[in-house]
User: Which sequence fits this backbone?
């Protein structure tokens, strides 16, 4: 025979290195039309969406920063980030991480792969790394595409933060990049859960759906008025707490907790997936890894992890209740109002005034007078007062606040019309959107009254 | 250990929960030989092949592959290639890409080396750049064999490699396996096709319910076996019938198309008498192959003994 066997008594080079296995896995992933289409979509659709929305009259005001899409190109990637945290990232992790092991079950190629690579440990490492690479490529596509779309359609202009303070374009760019990097932690947590589902549930479609289902369950939980410690101990909390980067000073603590919890979940779920994978019997055709063992080795430890992280967050932060208190709401609203009042002043061509001279304050109540003013709800009502230099009487404006359980609020101006009661203001150059009519803000859930008064 | 043994298994036992898949199996496979593994469904063939490929470890017993004892750690032994339960192919890749991806696992130099040659050997050159999604079972089997050949194995383990093969495909596969064996590679293959095994294998092991009921050369199996039925076509059927009836130890089973039941010595005598009487022998073949007869007899015994 022939060169294949003749003189070819050289045996294989032992087990295959992780680097070669990784390349093999990448080749397989990239050869799938599904993955190719996803890459193409992630690198193009957000840009087109951002550009199209920025150029039309109706803006997605229910999404954070959506109301600023006309004002600056940096709002686009943040609107995309908000959408990605809710839908795109859970679904992408499902399709990539949730299928990276299950696809071998579907194709019946496990034995072939193990004979070729000769080490289940390296198969696992190569698959996890290849899945991670594709996922990072998709996330990078979402970020880059939406940023490019926003900047090209609207331009590189200052971005009003969640406290109304304008962020210079360079500062906004850095924070946008940081926000996208921060959501990698919960994305990795979902990817770890995806790997675990893919290993534990084998051919079952549940394996593919697991990250999306977990993300959905956690989103539902976050909509509930639950204690702030539980909220922050969820592995997906950084999908919302990144918005703390856009207030001054940045609300870092909830974000750092969310990142830490996300990474702990990512490592734990991946380790559990590896343990399950290494215990699997590949000669037994009936065994695709699913079954009772998946529950005991997969789900129970993660439930324990959720309980442990909640306990640690509760003890270390001392946080109790919803984290939304009257004084915090008043302070957040007054700060945002003062910053945006300066913006309106500039629009109207009036003499500039500083926040310090405005001395804006807010007095808020919630619902009935018989109910304590705390917690989320759309029945917050506030009166903001401020002073203008040389004017004896204080100005007042009324706002209705819808405060979400995660601390984000929408302030809706109730008048007077000249200040916040109408969506347009008459400027020397024509009508312009009124920044004080409706705006977003955020209440820092962990901040104590004393600590925040310094900021 | 005997240096010429590619596989030496002693007392291999493997259980899946309460099911005993292999029960004290001994197996010797000599280098340069094609060793057939036969047995009814559920006899433990695939489990045994899986152990040889390093997909599982035995619960008890010792296993040496290519002179190296196999440990308790799950890992494919070096120099072994093959497949169980059908070849593993990625449908989104072409035949060539499947092989190239596998070859690249062994190093950048190996990416293209030998791919065209193995494709040619298994007769798939014409479809080398087609995606394997549309491949028939026979084409998949041949590509699986090509993938195994790429690794230049010293022990090739194949599970039902003849499944789905057309006559041309079968010829390719038989040719490849025979050449491999001639060059010193040990081949272990399982099959339900007795004609394939008889054509290819010098030794067979028959498994039934996880135990070895026979292991050795095919000739020994035929000698150990009882009388067989042979179909006899001659130039003068009435004369042949008459002569057959006269030979001691021959029983006429079917007088239409002459079928006789005989041992090999009695059959030799009949042929001598036919030739002596001027009757030309046009065909003399067992109705059921010796291997199949032995297989049925031995496995039925095993089943009856349970």
Assistant:
């Amino acid at each position: 025979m022939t060169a294949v066997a003749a003189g070819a008594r050289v045996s294989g080079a032992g087990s295959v290195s992780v680097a070669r296995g990784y390349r093999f896995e990448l080749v397989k992933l990239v050869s799938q039309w599904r993955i190719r289409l996803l890459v193409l979509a992630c690198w193009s659709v957000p840009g087109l969406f951002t550009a199209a929305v920025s150029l039309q009259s109706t803006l997605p005001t229910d999404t954070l920063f959506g109301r600023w899409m006309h004002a600056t190109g940096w709002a686009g990637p943040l609107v995309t980030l908000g959408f990605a945290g809710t839908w795109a990232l859970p679904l992408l992790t499902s399709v990539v991480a949730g299928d990276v092991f299950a696809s071998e079950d579907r194709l019946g190629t496990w034995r072939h792969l193990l004979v070729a690579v000769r080490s289940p440990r390296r198969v696992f490492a190569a698959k996890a790394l290849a899945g991670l690479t594709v996922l990072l490529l998709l996330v990078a596509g979402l970020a880059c595409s939406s940023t490019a779309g926003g900047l090209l359609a609207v331009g590189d202009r200052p971005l009003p933060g969640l406290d109304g303070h304008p962020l210079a374009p360079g500062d906004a760019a850095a924070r946008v990049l940081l926000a996208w990097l921060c959501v990698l932690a919960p994305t990795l947590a979902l990817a770890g859960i995806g790997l675990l589902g893919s290993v534990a549930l084998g051919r079952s479609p549940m394996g593919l759906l697991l990250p999306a289902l977990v993300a959905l369950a956690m989103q539902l939980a976050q909509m509930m008025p639950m204690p702030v410690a539980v909220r922050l101990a969820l592995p997906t909390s950084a999908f919302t707490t990144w918005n703390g980067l856009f207030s001054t000073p940045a609300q870092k603590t909830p974000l750092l907790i969310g990142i830490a919890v996300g990474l702990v979940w990512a490592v734990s779920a991946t380790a559990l997936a590896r343990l399950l994978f290494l215990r699997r019997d590949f000669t037994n055709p009936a065994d695709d890894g699913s079954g009772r063992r998946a529950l005991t080795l997969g789900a129970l430890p993660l439930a324990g992890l959720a309980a442990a992280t909640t306990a640690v967050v509760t003890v270390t932060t001392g946080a109790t209740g919803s984290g939304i208190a009257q004084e915090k709401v008043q302070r957040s609203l007054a700060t945002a109002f003062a910053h945006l009042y300066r913006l309106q002043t500039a629009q109207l061509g009036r003499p500039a005034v500083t926040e310090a001279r405005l001395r804006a304050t807010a007095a808020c109540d919630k619902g009935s007078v018989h109910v304590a003013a705390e917690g989320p709800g759309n029945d917050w009502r506030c009166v903001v007062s401020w002073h203008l230099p040389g004017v004896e009487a204080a100005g007042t404006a009324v706002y209705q606040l819808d405060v979400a359980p995660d601390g984000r609020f929408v302030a809706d101006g109730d008048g007077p019309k000249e200040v916040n009661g109408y969506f347009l203001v008459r400027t020397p150059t024509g009508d312009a959107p009124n920044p004080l009519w409706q705006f977003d803000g955020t209440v820092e859930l962990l901040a104590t009254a004393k600590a925040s008064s310094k900021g | 250990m005997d240096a010429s043994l590619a596989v030496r298994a002693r007392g291999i036992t493997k259980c899946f929960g309460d099911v005993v898949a292999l029960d004290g199996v001994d197996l010797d496979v000599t280098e340069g030989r094609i060793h057939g593994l036969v047995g009814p469904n559920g006899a433990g063939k695939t489990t045994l092949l899986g152990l040889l490929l390093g997909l599982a470890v035995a619960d008890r017993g010792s296993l040496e592959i290519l002179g190296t004892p196999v440990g308790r750690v799950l890992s494919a032994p070096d120099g072994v290639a093959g497949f169980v339960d059908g070849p593993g192919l990625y449908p989104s890749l072409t035949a060539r890409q499947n092989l190239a991806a596998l070859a690249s696992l062994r190093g950048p130099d190996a990416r293209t080396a030998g791919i065209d040659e193995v494709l040619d050997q298994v007769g798939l050159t014409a479809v080398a750049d087609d995606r394997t999604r549309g491949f028939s079972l026979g084409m998949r089997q041949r590509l699986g064999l090509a993938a195994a050949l790429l690794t230049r194995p010293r022990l090739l383990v194949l599970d039902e490699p003849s499944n789905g093969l057309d006559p041309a495909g079968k010829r390719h596969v038989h040719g490849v396996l025979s050449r491999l064996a001639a060059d010193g590679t040990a081949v272990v293959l399982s099959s339900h096709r007795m004609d394939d095994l008889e054509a290819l294998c010098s030794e067979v092991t028959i498994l039934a319910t996880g135990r070895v009921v026979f292991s050795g050369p095919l000739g020994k199996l035929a000698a150990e076996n009882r009388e067989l039925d042979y179909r006899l076509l001659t130039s003068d059927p009435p004369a042949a019938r008459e002569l057959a009836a006269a030979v001691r130890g021959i029983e006429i089973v079917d007088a239409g198309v002459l079928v006789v039941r005989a041992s090999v010595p009695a059959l030799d005598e009949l042929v001598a008498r036919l030739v002596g009487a001027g009757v030309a022998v046009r065909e003399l073949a067992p109705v059921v192959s010796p291997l199949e007869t032995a297989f049925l007899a031995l496995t039925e015994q095993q089943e009856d003994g349970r």
Summary: The mean pLDDT of chain B is 85. DSSP finds ten helices and 14 strands in chain B. Residues 33 and 186 of chain B are 5 Å apart (CA to CA).
